[in-house]
TrEMBL record, chain A:
Belongs to the zinc-containing alcohol dehydrogenase family. Pfam families: ADH_N (PF08240), ADH_zinc_N (PF00107). Residues 25-153 form the Alcohol dehydrogenase-like N-terminal domain. This is Glutathione-dependent formaldehyde dehydrogenase. Residues 197-265 form the Alcohol dehydrogenase-like C-terminal domain. GO terms for molecular function: oxidoreductase activity; zinc ion binding. Keywords: Metal-binding, Oxidoreductase, Zinc.
Amino acid sequence: MRALAWHGKHDVRVDTVDDPEILNPRDAIIKVTSTAICGSDLHLYDGYIPTMMAGDILGHEFMGEVVETGPKSTLKKGQRVVVPFTMACGSCYHCGKHQYSACDNALPADNQDIAQELYGQPMSGLFGYSHMTGGYAGGQAEYVRVPFSDVGPIVIPDGIEDEKVLFLSDILPTGWMAAENAGIEPGDIVAVWGCGPVGLFAVQSAFLMGADRVIAIDHFPHRLELAKRFGAETINFEESATYEALMLMTGGIGPDAVIDAVGLEAHGFFVDNVIDQIKASTFLGTDRIHSIRQAILACRKGGRVSMPAVYGGFVDKFPLGAFMEKGLTLRTGQTHVQHYMPGLLNAIVEGKIDTTFLISHTLPLEEAPKGYQMFHDNQNEVTKVVLKPGLALAAE
Amino acid sequence: MVNDMGTREALASDDAPLVTAKHGTAAGQSDTVVASAVTINRPAAELYAFWRDFANLATFMENVERVDALDDTRSRWVVKAPAGKTVEWVSRVTEEAADRLIAWEAEADAEVPNSGRVEFRDAGARGTVVTATIAYDPPAGFIGKVVAKMFQREPAIQARRDLRRFKQLMETGEIATSARTLKQLEEQD
Ligand SMILES: NC(=O)c1ccc[n+]([C@@H]2O[C@H](COP(=O)([O-])OP(=O)(O)OC[C@H]3O[C@@H](n4cnc5c(N)ncnc54)[C@H](O)[C@@H]3O)[C@@H](O)[C@H]2O)c1
Ligand SMILES: [Zn+2]
Ligand SMILES: [Zn+2]
């Protein structure tokens, strides 16, 4: 099959590799119809995520048709499914609590060591996202082996196009969980840092949860424009002083809840040698913790901080004093995608949530390297790139 | 023989398991002792029964090629060694209590003196806490290399990985792999 493989910093290629096979009873093989490039993929593209190996197949946002099933899979051939980017077994203690991204069993036993050393406990497995999260082949490919296919993928009713449901795989639930973690109460003013896909879905979700006003912060005019379309007020941090603007816009109180949807962005979180010497290695502070630092300072006393943004290692100058003195609450985590999928699918079917606005470019899988470059170089206009393995064939 | 991890010596000043002590060895002899605990979301009786059928151990213990039951308490362990070789010894159950405890020890003439103990403790809604403790007396030479491989660089890591695989098998019915093809899966073994 053809698949987008990582070969190094700013070097991704569409390679021909062996097709995936059913290896465990609960597996299914999915023929990918649509897959997206995520902001998180840019961290891989820029070479900042450790434990990547040349030839790793990328992609954690994908959907497609079931073409093969293991004896314990509950899926049927021909069904269309969206696959959650967090892999989860459905039967461990954490899955029982719907904390799917904390699943005990989705990471191969040997891969669990790295996270055990770095974080104290290993997390769930992720598709196409380095060997620390399992080393699983991702979905920017013609076919994917999907473990635990009896509990993860959600079946999509006929007649709903891919574009409407693809983002159930990650960014829509992530934006929704970000708003949920902000504990929004009616009348709240919510501030969102970052108007990428995650931030934009957090804006939509915050309004649906009863926020009175949402203030969106970014520096790309087009992305701020999209936030405005959903009713947000905007701050362009290159043109205005964010903290001062927020204070004036909230009558000096500060937002009731703040959401950091920026993340480590193009800044690495640690030096190499991480597998062998995790405990000894020096971790570089990410200067882009700017957004969470600013969010904590701006947040009103007793307010809530939600952090969907991804951080990986240690940081410098975290405003722990402000956090403690103001009595803030912080909630965060990789998204428990499986928990949110059914409700959000309903919201899409009922027309309460629109996801298609986000897609700025659709390309054949063969042009994936170009997609990465565009997404990397022009974030203002390129808001989301969707890749279609079938498209190249159709054009020929 | 391995100490019961839960039992504290009179002089201990805290409640932490003995093997976590920063000074001295828990077993009190020259043995290396490793212990690992995992919580498995299944009833103790089921986990005990699976483990007590020693042939099953090879399904989740990476370096154990085969365990053949010789009679009710004795079993022959065949363990992978470098260069495609194996080493073998006979183990004997020294203590057992249904659904709670199994302890075993290699017979006196074993090239690698070793003993082990696994305890199953009911943990209510969380399932069962499984604590495995393994003690061995690492010899020099070829066999020393075998032991080093069996327990890898850090013996605790190997025990932890084996217990994780046991948990995966019991909770999900399979052992997680990130291989994409059968060929890759075989290469990983
Ligand atoms: N928790 C999860 O499970 C999960 C899932 C998906 C993505 N993420 C993470 O969420 C974050 C956002 O993802 P995305 O796909 O929207 O990424 P993205 O890169 O498309 O968007 C980030 C946005 O933040 C803006 N930004 C940068 N610095 C800023 C600053 N100082 N103040 C305000 N805005 C700033 C950028 O201009 C950009 O528009 C990433 O860290 C990603 O890894 C987390
Ligand atoms: Zn993503
Ligand atoms: Zn689980």
